[in-house]
Design a protein that fits this description.
Helix content is about 40%, strand content about 20%. By secondary structure, it is of the alpha+beta class. Helix 2 crosses helix 6. The longest helix is centred in the last third of the chain and has 34 residues. About 40% of the residues are buried. The N terminus is likely disordered.
C-alpha cells in the first residue's frame, strides 16, 4: 500500500506540472522536488513570490461549493499548508499570528490518497491513513456536498491547553479562535492565488470529525476548508 501511495502522489505532481504549463494565469512558481519515506512526504519549498497581488486575491476571494474531480498536486498542497501554518522566520514564527507564539493549531488534509498531518517545522506531511476520508467527513459535516466533492479538505484543529498554560482557561479560547481565523483566511487567499476555489465550513459534528481522522483527544476540530478546482 505504501508503494501505491507513492505512485499516486508522484502522478499528482506530474499532473500539476502539465496543468501549470497550460494555465496562463498560474499565480506562483513552485519547486517540484520532493522526498519521501513510507510514512512521510517532504514537500517542495513554498513559493515566496507570485503573480497575483494581495489586492487582487482579496477582490477575487469568494466561497465556492462546486468542484470538479481533478486532484491537487504536492506543490499545491504544500503551498496551501504553508500559507496556513508555514514557518516564515528562523526562530519558528509562522504565517499566521499566534498569541504568545504558542501555536495551538494542528493542520490535517484529507484527499483521495489518504489523510495527512502537516509538520510546519519540516514542511512535510505524515500519513495517518491511506483511506479516502472525504465521504465520512461529508457525513460528519451534515452532508454538505462541497466536503465530499473537493479535491482536498483541510481540517484545522486546536490544542487549547497550549494557549491556556500562559493565558488561562478563560482567555485562551478567544485567542485560539482569533488564530484559526487568521490561518483560515491565509489558506483561502492562497487558494485564490493558485487559481483554485475554496469555502470555509463550520457546521459539523466535532466528535465525528475527530473519529474519522483519528485525531488525538486534545485536538479539537474548528474548521473544515474544502479546496479544489471550481466546476
Amino acid at each position: 500500500m505504501h508503494e501505491k501511495l507513492g505512485c499516486i502522489l508522484a502522478a499528482l505532481a506530474l499532473n500539476f506540472g502539465l496543468a501549470a504549463a497550460q494555465q496562463k494565469g498560474a499565480a506562483v512558481t513552485v519547486s517540484q522536488t520532493t522526498t519521501r519515506t513510507p510514512e512521510q512526504i517532504s514537500l517542495p519549498a513554498p513559493a515566496r513570490t507570485g503573480r497575483m497581488t494581495l489586492e487582487e486575491t482579496l477582490a477575487r476571494r469568494h466561497s465556492v461549493r462546486e468542484f470538479d474531480r481533478r486532484a491537487l498536486s504536492e506543490p499545491q498542497l504544500g503551498q496551501l499548508l504553508w500559507a496556513a501554518q508555514g514557518i516564515t522566520h528562523g526562530d519558528g514564527l509562522r504565517t499566521a499570528p499566534s498569541a504568545g507564539a504558542l501555536y495551538p493549531l494542528e493542520l490535517y488534509v484529507a484527499t483521495a490518497a489518504g489523510v495527512f498531518h502537516y509538520d510546519p517545522g519540516k514542511h512535510q506531511l505524515q500519513r495517518i491513513s491511506e483511506a479516502d476520508a472525504r465521504p465520512e467527513l461529508w457525513r460528519a459535516a451534515l452532508e454538505q456536498n462541497q466536503v465530499r466533492d473537493a479535491s482536498a479538505v483541510f481540517v484545522i484543529a486546536a490544542v487549547f491547553e497550549r494557549t491556556a498554560r500562559k493565558y488561562g482557561p478563560t482567555r485562551a479560547p478567544r485567542y485560539v479562535h482569533m488564530e484559526v481565523g487568521h490561518a483560515a483566511q491565509n489558506l483561502l487567499l492562497q487558494a485564490v492565488a493558485l487559481n483554485l476555489a475554496a469555502v470555509p465550513v463550520g457546521a459539523f459534528h466535532d466528535d465525528q470529525v475527530q473519529k474519522v481522522l483519528a485525531l488525538p483527544k486534545d485536538h479539537e476540530p474548528l474548521y473544515l476548508i474544502p479546496v479544489g478546482y471550481p466546476r
